[in-house]
């Protein structure tokens, strides 16, 4: 009869347990990094939608982050409410259970990319776009120039940065990737 002896079975289970124990931390970090990437891409899409609404409605439109605890909850609405441009065009609320948080930097604070913004810093905050798609009020009204997207329960998870240029361009970058590689800040 071909089969495993009890000792062989115990050794096989021990080896499998060790391999699983070694892989769990990497899997957890991977899922956290994936959640951060997904949230950053959603925020980038909301910022780009704000710009698109401003151009298509020929009005100044703002994206406002409304939670001061770092949740990425937001509202898109017109600066000057009219029939063509309502106070709230679109909004997204996140639950307290969402572990992904943000901190923002405005044009009046010159923080280096290597410096991690604290969760909730600068919130609530706003970025607005002109009818031409420019974010010109970054200088005048100290609006958002950068968002840090991070995990609230893990300092080992990656941090992504969303940079908003005055021209209206929005990019996601990883401050841990050294220049000139793709994805670096």
Contiguous runs where pLDDT drops below 50 for at least 5 residues: none
CATH fourth-tier homologous superfamily: minor pseudopilin epsh domain
The class by helix and strand makeup works out as alpha+beta
Q: Name the helix and strand elements from N-terminus to C-terminus, one letter apiece.
A: HEEEEEHEEE
Could you characterize what this model shows?
It is a single chain. The chain has helices spanning about 5-55, 135-140; strands spanning about 60-65, 75-80, 90, 100-105, 125-130, 145-150, 160-165, 170-175. The chain is an alpha+beta fold and about 180 residues long. The strands form two sheets. Strands 3-2-1-5 form a four-stranded antiparallel β-sheet, with helices on one face. The protein has two helices and eight strands; from the N terminus they run H-E-E-E-E-E-H-E-E-E.
Summarize the topology:
Blueprint: H1 6-57, E1 61-65, E2 74-78, E3 90-92, E4 100-106, E5 125-129, H2 137-140, E6 144-151, E7 160-164, E8 170-173
Quick synopsis:
By secondary structure, this protein is an alpha+beta fold. The chain has one domain (6-173): minor pseudopilin epsh fold (3-Layer(bab) Sandwich), CATH 3.55.40.10.
């Amino acid at each position: 009869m071909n089969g495993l002896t009890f000792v062989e079975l115990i050794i096989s289970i021990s080896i499998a347990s060790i391999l699983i124990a070694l892989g769990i931390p990497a899997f957890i970090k991977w899922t956290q990094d994936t959640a951060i990437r997904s949230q950053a891409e959603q925020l980038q899409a909301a910022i780009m939608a704000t710009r698109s609404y401003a151009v298509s409605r020929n009005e100044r439109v703002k994206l406002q982050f409304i939670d001061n605890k770092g949740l990425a909850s937001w509202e898109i609405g017109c600066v000057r409410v009219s029939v063509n441009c309502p106070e709230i065009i679109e909004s997204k609320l996140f639950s307290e259970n969402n572990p992904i948080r943000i901190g923002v930097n405005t044009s009046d604070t010159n923080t280096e990319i290597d410096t991690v913004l604290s969760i909730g810093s600068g919130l609530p905050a706003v970025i607005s776009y002109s009818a031409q798609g420019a974010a010109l009020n970054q200088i005048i009204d100290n609006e958002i120039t950068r968002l840090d997207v991070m995990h609230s329960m893990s300092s080992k998870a990656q941090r992504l940065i969303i940079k908003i240029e005055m021209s209206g361009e929005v990019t996601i970058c990883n401050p841990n990737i050294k220049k000139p590689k793709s994805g670096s800040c």
